[in-house]
Amino acid sequence: MSITTLGLHGFCAARVIRRAFEAVDLITGMVDTESTKSELMRLLAAPIGESHYVSTPLWQMLRIANEIAYRSDGAFDVAAAGTGGTARWTDIDLSVKNLVRLSRPLQVDLCAIAKGFVVDAAVKALQEAGVHQGIVDLDGCIRAFGPQEWRVYFSLNASGDGARLPITLRDGALACFGEGYGSAALYDARQDMLFAKEEWGTDGVIIRAPSAAFAAGLTHVAALMPTDAAKVLRGLSAQGLVLTREGPRVLECTP
Predict the structure, then answer these.
(1) N or C of the chain: less Cβ packing under 10 Å?
(2) What is the pLDDT of residue 162?
(3) Domain extents in the chain
């Protein structure tokens, strides 16, 4: 992760950036699926059918995931991804803030939004420390805040060489998915099918959204349902581009 702040110098900048990295460490530890002591794993091991208190960040992360699942009609589904299709996002009840009730035993795979969520957490920590403008970049999941306009360049081919596409960003987030943009797999909850990145194709997807968590999750929606994704994106104040061999194409609703 890289963090850039404007208007801060010396010790003050180092202090607030350190605070942002501490916030990131807290979130990643909270959702660590390899530790039985993480908050997420404790929740998944709790008695079924009972409401359990969780921290605000974990509740918000699950809520974002369920919001994208609802708007994509279940194409994006962190519960189905974690259980091989035996569970659905509707098995996670978040109707009361900070309370989670699971209606069946399940696992949850938050990889699709976790990177974006920790970027948002870093931005929040910077703002709470008094930073008014800056940009946070975690492996291509980027969020800018404040009045400064930034220009982010995306390669138009998987090798990273050659032409690059400039996208302006001010007080919002960008996330990308596809060949050349990380190693994330693509899970289609509707068909219970997992695609490795080499199986998905050569096109890339870039999403601009108000938050990095939504931008990251919506890249999967755009890849899974390219003909209908624009409708989902518009409902969440997001926009999308598909990077094809013929050039970038704006995601629009199919008549």
Answers:
(1) C
(2) 63
(3) 142-250
- Contact yes or no for 211/116 (Cβ under 8 A): yes
How far, in Å, CA of 110 to CA of 31, rounded? 8
pLDDT at 6: 79
Which positions ≥6 away from 173 have C-beta within 8 Å? Answer: 116, 119, 120, 141, 142, 143, 144, 208, 209, 210, 211, 212, 214, 215
Whether 240 shows a pLDDT value over 60: the answer reads yes
Beta strands 99-102 and 51-53 are antiparallel
